Amino acid sequence: xxxxxxxxxxxxxxxxRELCIFCHSREVQKTYLSPRGKLHTFTICRVPVxxxxxxxxxxxxxxxxxxxxxxxxxxxxxxDLKIGMExxxxxxxxxxxxxxNEIYSYKFRPAKT
Length: 113
Prior knowledge:
Oligomer: single chain
Structural class: mainly beta
CATH class of the largest domain: Mainly Beta
Number of domains: 2
Mean pLDDT: 95
Shape: globular
Strand order of the largest sheet: 6-5-4-7-8
Distance between the termini: 21 Å
Low-confidence stretches: none
Order of helices and strands: EEEEEEEE
């Protein structure tokens, strides 16, 4: 995942922006964020929404850079999801558009040991 690292205030943000969202400096660098983090909180949704099949899970992932990423969770078992567990980034198909193009997105899954 490509994020922003501000050279003035030192904070990270996601996604990449040409302006720091904290101090508004333009002294920012593109940076790759860690592909691993810890599950901060989550919920399991049982109501269908477009492009998902219930049940599905979403949650916040704490990254080592000091920011939280909201993400759909994948490859999980309800009994195994635990606050604080190690998670890892994956890229998976989200949907196919009307023209037949496959659209991909980032998701997090329980980390393999």
